[in-house]
Task: inverse folding
């Protein structure tokens, strides 16, 4: 079946379809264009001002842009990962006003003028954040995809004092999923920084 999709007949079929579309009368094209404009939501572009990792950015973006997409696609801060894009994996965790948030569920427009910290903003120059260092020392990552989100949550876990027991750490960190199963190293890293 798959092979048939790319057969000579397929290419002939698609090219004749393209040729046929070119012959569609302009009145019909205009009709569909009009329909499209009526049915698709209108983009609303807004100028946003964000303070990310202590730097101020002014960007134009659709009002529906998530903080995650704005960080990755407009500001090129790709350390924050897009996993599920539905608030279920924690890969996109950043801090807003020092508190962890899921950037895939946060509109960029909602965090204007508030300090946002991403994984890129944790280190002080060449000096890694203690949690980054602990992840390295305790093998807190394997493939590393979930790591930025895990580290952002881990920092919040320590800052908010949820490190009294392994169970408490696991409960706090339960929104951050790791498909590689680096959980033991992650818990150890948090305990190390909390000591
Ligand atoms: S990408 Fe945001 S929770 Fe998964
Ligand atoms: S280290 Fe691979 S997903 Fe967590």
Result:
């Amino acid at each position: 079946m798959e092979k048939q999709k790319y057969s000579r007949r397929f290419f002939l079929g698609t090219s004749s379809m393209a040729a046929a579309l070119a012959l569609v009368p302009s009145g019909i094209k205009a009709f569909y264009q009009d329909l499209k404009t009526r049915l698709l939501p209108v983009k609303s572009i807004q100028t946003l001002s964000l303070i990310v990792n202590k730097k101020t950015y002014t960007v134009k973006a659709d009002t529906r842009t998530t903080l995650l997409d704005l960080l990755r696609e407009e500001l090129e801060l790709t350390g924050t990962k897009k996993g599920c894009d539905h608030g279920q994996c924690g890969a996109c965790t950043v801090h807003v006003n020092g508190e962890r948030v899921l950037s895939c569920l946060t509109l960029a427009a909602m965090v204007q003028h508030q300090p946002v910290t991403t994984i890129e903003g944790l280190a002080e120059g060449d000096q890694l954040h203690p949690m980054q260092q602990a992840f390295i020392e305790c093998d807190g990552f394997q493939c590393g995809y979930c790591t930025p989100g895990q580290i952002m949550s881990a920092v919040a876990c320590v800052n908010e004092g949820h490190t009294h027991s392994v169970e408490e750490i696991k409960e706090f960190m339960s929104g951050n999923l790791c498909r590689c199963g680096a959980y033991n190293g992650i818990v150890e890293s948090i305990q190390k920084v909390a000591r």
